[in-house]
Design brief:
Blueprint lengths: L1 E3 L6 H12 L5 E4 L2 H8 L8 H9 L6 E4 L6 H11 L3 E5 L5 H10 L3 E5 L7 H9 L2
Parallel strand pairs: 1-2, 2-3, 4-5
Helix pairs in contact: 4-5
């Protein structure tokens, strides 16, 4: 299981998702809502709607399922989602700012948290900023 915004899919996302899939046999992506992406990334985001991001992700051969998350999910809501899915592994990017929360969720279902090293590529935020210059 992984979670995120996945707004403008780029090489770093693809690499992360492929590595996450290689850790198991079924990859679930928890996809943040448009409102939450806006809160996390700024008023000009998301570039793609949640339904568009869902369609992009599910079209990838290494993504098995995409779950659209509702607005305003609390830590308790995320924990309940993890309990319902019961993943064996929760994959996170190295330096994840909410790693402690994900470790707590993993512990609740006896899952393992695996940190995947970041790839040195421009982030979605940097790509979006560059696109505005055109």
């Amino acid at each position: 299981m992984v979670g995120g915004c996945f707004d403008i899919l780029h090489f770093g996302h693809i690499s992360f998702l492929k590595k996450a899939k290689s850790l198991g046999n079924y990859l679930v992506v928890a996809l943040e809502s448009d409102k939450n992406v806006k809160r996390l990334k700024g008023t000009d985001r998301p570039i793609h709607s949640q339904s568009q991001r869902h369609e992009i992700l599910i079209s990838l051969e290494f993504v098995d399922e995409v779950i659209n998350l509702p607005d305003n999910m609390s830590d308790t809501d995320y924990l309940e989602l993890v309990k319902n899915i019961r993943p064996a592994i929760i994959a996170v990017t190295q330096g994840d700012p909410i790693l402690a929360k994900k470790q707590k969720q993993a512990k609740a279902v006896r899952a393992k948290v695996v940190e995947i090293a970041n790839i040195k590529v421009p982030s979605t935020s940097k790509i979006a900023k560059l696109l505005k210059l055109e």
